[in-house]
Amino acid sequence: MVPPVSNSPALPAAEPWAPRELALVVPTLNERANIPVLVGKLHDVLQGIEWEVLFVDDDSKDGTAAEVRRIAQTDPRVRCIQRIGRRGLASACIEGILATSTPFVGVMDADLQHDETLLPRMLQALREEQLQIVVASRHVEGGSMGDFDKKRVAISDFATRLSRLIVSSDLTDPMSGFFMLRRDAFEAAVRNLSGQGFKILLDIFASSPTPPKFREFPFRFRTRQFGESKLDAMVVWEYLMLIADKLIGHIIPVRFVLFALIGGIGVGVNLVVLKLALQAGLSITGAGVWATLAAMVFNFLLNNQLTYRDRRLKRWKLLRGLITFCIGCSIGAVANVGIAAQVYGQGNSWWLAGLAGALIGAVWNYAIASTYTWGKTK
Ligand code: GDD
Ligand code: MN
What we know:
The chain is α/β, with parallel strands linked by helices and 378 residues long. 50% of the residues lie in helices and 10% in strands. It folds into two domains: 22-248, Spore Coat Polysaccharide Biosynthesis Protein SpsA, Chain A, CATH 3.90.550; 254-373. Strands 3-2-1-4-6-5-7 form a seven-stranded mixed sheet. Helix 9 runs antiparallel to helix 10 (284-307). The two termini are 40 Å apart. The mean pLDDT is 89. Manganese (II) ion binds at residues 109, 111, 113, 224, 229.
């Protein structure tokens, strides 16, 4: 036990500190040049408000986190969370919000495309009206997509329509990455959030126990000046995954469904290669080996692109992943045959035996793939 210290000096009195009202959470990936500009703009527009800004950086290569810390050294309103080995806009926002304590939290992009002059009005609406969320929308009167190309406008319209499957609220811009909410509204939803992909606002709406009361503010999406967009063609895919997760995720994991579907296509690949190899004059064993290999490589690559896109393996990790995947699947194949033989031996029909074997094999392969091949451990 530590003996009590006599004559211990009194702690210095804490600096008077006005309670903070608003925290802004800003996800970043290679936004170095935008950081000081954004912080400067926030100081300009948020005068008279007690605010802070928290950047959640996914280990940007351009030194974004270092830039945030440089500013944070002299500006106590600025903080940085640096995530290593992680990716994802939605999960960055969730973790950022959880690391703040203010009654109101705003989420906005770092790239100056979101009009920061709206922030005081958004906060005021949350303070004074019976609202849980305020959303900056490009689709209410007065708002605009800025100079988005036609293709992106069309995709965005389609996605908005699709969102009705999981959200009953009449949000005009569920894709918006610019919104503000009360902490209690976030806390009511946080344990149900999917955290997948880009669509954190939609996720919050779809995960709230009752439809949140919201109001929309029109805004014009600005053009990016520094850096480039991180949204690629796959955002559509990630979006569909979010919708599927919200629709069926409570019954069966969407990842498993995808994994099994791709496995099914793999069977087709196996058959085609088998046929070709036999035609080329290989023995049935030789042809079988090539066919199995082809199916496994095909399944591995497709799962890497789609099922486990958020944990995608690259370069030498891709090779290591392929090896663990092939070993896992080989054991799965043995289990498949063994189970099928046993079920068949108990007097069941061939198709039931085959189905039981395939199901056990698929679950096994999925477990190995999720924990080893695309597992979180390094
Ligand atoms: N931490 C983290 N991790 N941040 C990320 C990641 C990530 O994986 N991906 C992107 N960001 C950051 C960017 O640095 C930027 O600050 C913000 O998230 C938005 O990314 P952009 O790449 O600029 O997206 P955008 O401009 O194409 O899309 C915006 O508009 C969409 C509406 O069409 C975003 O606001 C989307 O959320 C929004 O749906
Ligand atoms: Mn952007």
